[in-house]
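FIELD: query
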Amino acid sequence: MADSTDQFEYEEILYEVDGATAIITLNRPETLNALTDLTQAEVRHALERSEQNPAILGNVLTGAGRGFCSGVDMNALGKMSEAGRRLGNTYGHLAADPGNPDDDPNFEIGAAYFLGLSKPLIAAINGACAGLGFSWATFCDLRFIDRNARITTSFAQRGLIAEHGTSWMLPRLIGPANALDLFWTSRKINGEEAFRLGYANRLCEDGECVDDAVSFLNEINETNAPNSLMYMKRQVYKHLNKELHPAMVESNTWMDESLARGDFKEGVDSFVQKRPPKFNRVGSD
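FIELD: result
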């Protein structure tokens, strides 16, 4: 399906490009793609590659085999339990800064950096999704889920709290009561219930969520200005933390700036001339 670009070698993920979409696949299927420090560093590095490639509109994050991501690797959890604290390794060759154009401190900890990316990030949930994997999916911009995928928070079953920012993000997606239900019970929900609750944006037939997410991004690439998508993402996440008045002031400032850009003229001209638009790529205007 996908066409590889440059040949940087990863150990625990796959990075491919299909049209205007980067596909990042967690590639530890024997563990249902449980996350190690290396996996997390490689994903961060891959997202920086995508951010720096003007041909890419957005990203799809998924898992190999039967799972999206089962959470943190249990070997790592065992070591943390013995030490009574978080452990972490660094990988200098994977040092990356995927993006946070406003240096917003809200987008610096854990998976919250997904919100600071300039390009869309879709979780294609193809199977088991739990723990930190659930957190990662929750902080993606959209979630496309296979009908029979299974999601669980699993934090309470490990004697933990609602981790990794999910106590902030999940209630904003599905409401406080539904969030507490999933946190307290750790019950497994399938794709249909995730879609009904509003957690998933698209319900896909089994095995099709990745293709559906790639098609979604490639289709909007044909008709929408990448810079418009970037600013809309910044508006939504920055304004979640603001009162209405400063959000309106910032939106009006950015609107005035957008009217002066070439994308606005191209959007009008292409509409009048009844032709496909040729918008600038992110960072080029």
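FIELD: remark
The two ends are 31 Å apart (CA to CA).
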